[in-house]
C-alpha cells in the first residue's frame, strides 16, 4: 500500500453508487477500530486495525473519526469583487430581490466579473479551492452566471476548466447564463432568453465547457415558461439540467423540475406540496442550502417532509458573494442538523453520497469503499455526533485527496 491510515476510532460512510432516499437517507455505516489502505490513489483496503497491511507511509488517526471527503454540489465559485457594500442595505431591511431589482446583487457581481481578467479570477477561485480543501471539501460543483454575455460566461467556464486541470480539487462545471437579466436586456428579457438559447447554449455545448445547465427560476428573474424554454433547449443540446427552484417565492419551479426530470432542484425553501410530489415522482434530488436561509433570514426548506416523501436530499454551501459568502460546508452541515433536524447520519449522507449523485460523481466519489477514489477526511472528533454537535470552528484534522495528504 502507498498509504495506510491506522487507529481510526469510527469510520462513517455510506455504501454503493446510488442515491439514498426516505429511510435510506440515514444509511451510514459506522465501524470501530478500523484501518484504510490506499494504492494508486484508490481505496484498496478497509478492515480491522489488527489485520491492516503495511504501508510505504502510515498515518496514525489518533482515535479520530474518518468520513469520505465532502462533496459540495452547489457553488458559484468564480466571481469578481464582493458585495460587502450591500450589507447595510440588507440590515435596513432591503430584501435580496429589492437589491437585485435596483441593479445590485447578482448584477453588481456581473459588473465586477466582466471587469476582472482571467488570471485574477483564476487566482481568486484557486484560493477558495485551497480553503475548501482545508475545510474537508474534496469535490465541488461550480456555476457560471456572472457574465451574462458570451465573453464573460466563457471566461468563467474556462477558469473552471483550467482549475480542474491544475488544482487538486475535482470540479464539475455548470453553465448558468440564465442567472439574471443583464442591463442590456432590461427592456427585452425575451430577447435575452433567445440569446441564451440560440447563441450561448450551442457555444458552451460545442466547446464542452459544462456538464449541466442551471437557471434562476424566481420572481423578477426567469419565470416558469422562460425556464422551461431554456432548460428544454439545453436538454436538446445534450446538457443535463438543474434549477434554482422556489427559493424565495413558490412560482412553480419545483413542479417544473419534476416535469423536465432535472437531475436536481436547488433551494426549495418555498416549495409547495404539489412541487414536492413532482420531485418525488420524478426522482429529482433536492439540493438544500441552509446557509443561504440563515444569511437571508429566510425559512428553512422542509427537509424532513422531503425525506418522508422519498425525495433524496443533498446539502451544499451555495458559496457565492451575495446570499452565502461562505465556502465552509461544515456550516451548512451544522445548520442542516439544527434547523432541518436531519440526524448526523442523514446529514452526512447529504454531503457525501447524495451530494456526489447530484453531480453524477458517485462512481468514484461519496463513499469510502474499495475501488473508489481516496478522498478522505480525518476529523478532530471522536465520533460522528461530535462533528455535528460542535459548530463554528474548522473540525478538520487531515485531508487526503486522491490518495495524497494535502493538509
Ligand atoms: O450572487 O446572489 N441565489 N443566485 C441565486 C445567487 C443566489 C448568487 C448571488
Ligand atoms: Zn445558487
Query: Biggest sheet, in brief?
Result: 8 strands, parallel
**Hetero groups:** 2H-imidazol-4-ylacetic acid, zinc ion
Number of strands: 15
Overall body shape: globular
* Count of individual helical segments: 15
Q: What are the low-pLDDT stretches, counting only 5+ consecutive residues below 50? A: none
User: What is the CA-CA span between the terminal residues?
Assistant: 20 Å
Structural commentary:
By secondary structure, this protein is of the alpha/beta class. The chain has 15 helices and 15 strands. It has helices at 87-92, 96-101, 106-115, 118-134, 150-166, 189-206, 224-236, 253-259, 273-281, 290-296, 303-308, 329-338, 344-351, 353-358, 384-389, and strands at residues 3-13, 29-39, 42-48, 57-68, 70-72, 137-143, 170-178, 212-217, 240-245, 264-267, 285-288, 313-315, 376-379, 396-401, 404-405. Helix 6 packs parallel to helix 7 and helix 12 (329-338) packs antiparallel against helix 13. The mean pLDDT is 98. Bound molecules: 2H-imidazol-4-ylacetic acid and zinc ion. The site of zinc ion has 5 residues, from loops.
Amino acid at each position: 500500500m502507498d498509504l495506510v491510515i491506522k487507529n481510526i476510532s469510527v469510520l462513517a460512510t455510506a455504501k454503493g453508487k446510488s442515491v439514498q432516499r426516505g429511510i435510506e437517507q440515514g444509511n451510514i455505516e459506522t465501524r470501530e477500530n478500523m484501518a484504510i489502505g490506499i494504492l494508486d490513489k484508490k481505496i484498496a483496503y478497509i478492515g480491522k486495525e489488527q489485520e491492516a497491511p503495511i504501508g510505504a507511509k502510515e498515518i496514525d488517526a489518533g482515535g479520530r473519526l474518518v468520513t469520505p471527503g465532502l462533496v459540495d454540489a452547489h457553488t458559484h465559485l468564480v466571481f469578481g469583487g464582493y458585495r460587502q457594500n450591500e450589507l447595510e442595505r440588507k440590515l435596513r431591511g432591503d430584501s435580496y430581490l429589492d437589491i437585485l431589482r435596483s441593479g445590485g446583487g447578482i448584477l453588481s457581481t456581473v459588473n465586477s466579473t466582466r471587469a476582472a481578467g482571467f488570471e485574477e479570477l483564476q487566482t481568486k477561485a484557486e484560493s477558495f479551492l485551497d480553503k475548501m480543501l482545508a475545510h474537508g471539501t474534496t469535490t465541488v460543483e461550480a456555476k457560471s452566471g456572472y457574465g451574462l454575455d458570451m465573453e464573460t460566461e466563457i471566461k468563467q467556464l474556462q477558469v473552471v476548466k483550467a482549475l480542474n486541470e491544475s488544482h487538486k480539487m475535482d470540479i464539475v462545471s455548470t453553465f448558468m447564463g440564465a442567472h439574471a437579466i443583464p442591463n442590456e436586456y432590461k427592456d427585452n428579457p425575451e430577447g435575452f432568453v433567445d440569446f441564451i438559447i440560440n447563441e450561448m447554449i450551442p457555444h458552451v455545448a460545442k466547446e464542452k465547457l459544462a456538464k449541466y445547465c442551471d437557471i434562476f427560476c424566481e420572481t423578477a428573474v426567469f419565470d416558469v415558461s422562460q425556464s422551461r424554454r431554456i432548460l428544454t433547449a439545453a436538454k436538446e443540446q445534450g446538457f443535463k439540467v438543474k434549477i434554482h427552484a422556489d427559493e424565495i417565492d413558490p412560482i412553480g419551479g419545483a413542479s417544473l423540475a419534476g416535469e423536465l426530470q432535472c437531475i436536481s432542484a436547488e433551494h426549495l425553501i418555498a416549495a409547495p406540496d404539489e412541487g414536492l410530489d413532482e420531485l418525488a415522482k420524478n426522482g429529482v434530488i433536492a439540493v438544500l442550502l441552509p446557509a443561504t436561509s440563515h444569511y437571508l433570514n429566510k425559512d428553512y426548506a422542509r427537509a424532513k417532509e422531503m425525506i418522508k416523501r422519498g425525495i433524496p436530499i443533498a446539502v451544499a454551501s451555495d458559496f457565492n458573494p451575495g446570499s452565502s459568502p461562505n465556502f465552509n460546508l461544515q456550516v451548512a452541515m451544522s445548520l442542516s442538523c439544527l434547523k432541518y433536524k436531519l440526524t448526523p447520519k442523514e446529514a452526512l449522507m447529504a454531503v457525501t453520497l447524495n451530494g456526489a449523485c447530484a453531480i453524477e460523481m458517485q462512481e468514484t466519489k461519496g463513499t469510502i469503499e474499495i475501488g473508489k477514489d481516496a478522498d478522505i477526511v480525518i476529523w478532530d472528533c471522536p465520533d460522528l455526533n461530535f462533528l455535528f454537535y460542535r459548530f463554528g470552528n474548522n473540525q478538520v484534522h487531515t485531508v487526503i485527496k486522491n490518495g495524497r495528504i494535502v493538509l
